[in-house]
Amino acid sequence: MKSISPPIKIFLLLFFFIKTYGQDRVITTGVPFLLITPDARAAGMGELGVATSADSYSQQWNPAKYAFSEGDSGLGLSYTPYLRKLVDDIFLGSISYFIKINERSAWGTSLKYFSYGNVQFNEMISGDIIDQGSKRPNEITLDLSYSLKLSENFAMAVAGRFLRSDLKIHTDMDATSANSLGVDIAGFYQSSPFDMGNLDGLIRAGFNISNIGPRLKYDEGGQTDFIPTNLKIGTGLDLIFDTSNVLGIHLELSKLLVPTPVAYYNNNNELQGYRQPDINFFNGIFKSFNDAPGGMAEELKEITWALGFEYLFAETLALRTGYFNESEEKGSRRYMTFGAGFKLNGMVIDISYLSSTSKIRNPLENTVRFSLTFGFNRSNPLPQEDTQPVEGTF
């Protein structure tokens, strides 16, 4: 008889929880780690970032922001522990890098690695436990983006992404990894500073349709899963009190462009549960806007929203907070976030903390997250355009 270590038992319990909770038509996808916030700056503002100022982690939120970066290039490193209260080896690691080609365009890339921890396999023979080795299920993505300013205040970007999901958890399972490709299409608007009476203001807005691509297919049983195609729309306002004091206010809406699970029944016409419809990803995107059995009322419940605040002082200190909200019938993720950032010798250190306000436990609850950002400038600056300097960012 095969036995497995506690980490994989926790993983299987989580899988069971998702399937059970799916009775309420919670939308589930493959590679869900793509929806985990990798950087502590965004995590401290209610986990939003589609319309905030550009930073090294814009690849996750909106690669079109890179075209508006004040720096010539940047590198971001982050580590996010997952289920830290239960295990110590499940985590998300991320590295992001961007470089501006000129004042109008930029390239960006990122690598994300999600580990489900070390899984120990044992076999019981005649009452003795025999070590069968261990494995480390994981998922990984590698992507590349290009952003271009179409005007002084608006840019668009496209990104391509390779996804690999290796979740083989049995030593006798002859299964290969599931692979897919994803595409992002994003846009970003940033105004010039304008007069608001006793202070100046700056408006930002953005959208990103991420992970547009084919379903993941696993060999075992021909299982297929939609990847988390996601639409984000957001806006933000910077209140510039003076050169040393800036307050950013941000609002973001998000919706998975994945079909709502449909009911299935047994031969006696008894409800057995809910599962994803068997359609291709392209039809699934359009179907996701009007397929909820509860009509428009249920469709609106599939939209999450986040509100975030960021106060910058002298471009060296940042204080952040935010709130994330999801319908109780669609996952019930609700939490407050807090964060801070410090700039030291060209390096930015960000930290964040999440406190759940829902009855459903959050895997990142009471977890402190850290990320590092390094900015680089060329010895020969890029040609400058005739624009005003942008406030409200490190």
Short synopsis of the structure:
The protein has helices at 6-21, 40-43, 58-61, 281-287, 296-301; strands spanning 2-4, 73-81, 91-100, 105-115, 119-125, 128-135, 138-149, 154-166, 178-190, 194-195, 200-212, 216-217, 224-225, 230-242, 245-256, 262-265, 271-275, 303-313, 317-325, 334-344, 347-356, 368-376. The protein is mostly beta strands and 394 residues long.
Strand content: over 45%
| Count of helical regions | 5
Distance between the termini: 57 Å
Overall pLDDT: 84
Which architecture name does CATH use?
Answer: Beta Barrel
* Helical content band: under 10%
Domain count: the total is 1
* CATH H-level homologous superfamily name: monomeric porin ompg
Main CATH class: Mainly Beta
What does this structure look like?
The protein is mainly beta and 394 residues long. It has one domain (2-122, 134-374): monomeric porin ompg (Porin, Beta Barrel). It is built from 5 helices and 22 strands. The protein has helices at 6-21, 40-43, 58-61, 281-287, 296-301; strands spanning 2-4, 73-81, 91-100, 105-115, 119-125, 128-135, 138-149, 154-166, 178-190, 194-195, 200-212, 216-217, 224-225, 230-242, 245-256, 262-265, 271-275, 303-313, 317-325, 334-344, 347-356, 368-376. Strands 2-3-4-7-8-9-11-14-15-18-19-20-21-22 form a 14-stranded antiparallel barrel. The protein has a 3-stranded antiparallel sheet with strand order 1-5-6. The protein is globular and about 70 Å long. Residues 1-23 and 384-392 have low confidence and may be disordered.
